[in-house]
Amino acid sequence: MFAIKAQITDLRATSFVFNRQKTMYGGKLIAPGDVIFVFASENEGGPGLIARGVVTSAKAIARKPGIERQTPRVSITVKRTARAKRRLGRSELKQLPDSELNFKFYRQATNKIVGISDEAATFLAGFL
Fold first, then answer.
1. Which of 91, 55, 61 is nearest to 76 (CA)?
2. Per-residue model confidence as pLDDT tens digits over 65-104
3. Which tens digit of pLDDT belongs to each residue from 41-59?
4. Could you tell me the maximum CA-CA distance found in the chain, to the nearest angstrom?
5. pLDDT for the residue 61
6. Residue 25 and residue 88: Cα distance in Å, rounded?
7. What is the CATH number of the domain that holds 113?
8. How far apart are CA 4 and CA 55, in angstroms?
9. Which pLDDT value is given to residue 31?
10. I need a labelling partner for 126 at 20 to 30 A (CA). Which of 67, 92, 100, 110 fits?
11. For the chain, what percent of residues have pLDDT higher than 90?
12. Residue 41 burial (C-beta neighbours within 10 Å; 0-12, 13-18, 19+)
């Protein structure tokens, strides 16, 4: 399972397109059919967790030649399958300082796609 934190302009959209997203913690392995939890980035004014969805397309972005260290990037399309019913953002995750999600999303606060554990997915499902 995966989670993405990104700038989202329409929080009620039924599908989302994320182009050239940075990946970390196994996020580059995302593929069509994968479940993903969608966070509207608080860095861009979003509220945090807004939805769960299924990846309908995923395409790895080729690395630029001549640059030694590059973070893998992918473009994905996500179909929303559920909406968040309770708030879960940075302030709530800070209360769980040792949590996987707090570490993966806010240790380095950039927007990104990350792989998450079954335990983290179960935790997130409780907010939908």
1. 55
2. 888 888 899 999 999 999 999 999 988 988 887 889 989 9
3. 998 989 999 999 999 999 9
4. 46
5. 94
6. 21
7. 3.10.590
8. 11
9. 97
10. 110
11. 77
12. buried
DSSP 12: T
CA gyration radius, the chain: 14
19 is in which domain, residue-wise?
2-125
Distance, in Å, from the CA atom of 84 to the CA atom of 78, rounded to the nearest integer, reads: 15
Residue 38 burial (C-beta neighbours within 10 Å; 0-12, 13-18, 19+):
buried
Encoding tokens for residue 52? Answer: 């769960």
Using a pLDDT cut of 70, give the percent of the chain over it. 100
Taken in order 81, 47, 44, 1, the sign of the CA dihedral is negative
Count of domains forming the chain? 1
Does residue 22 surpass a pLDDT of 90? yes
Q: Which tokens belong to 61? A: 């972005």
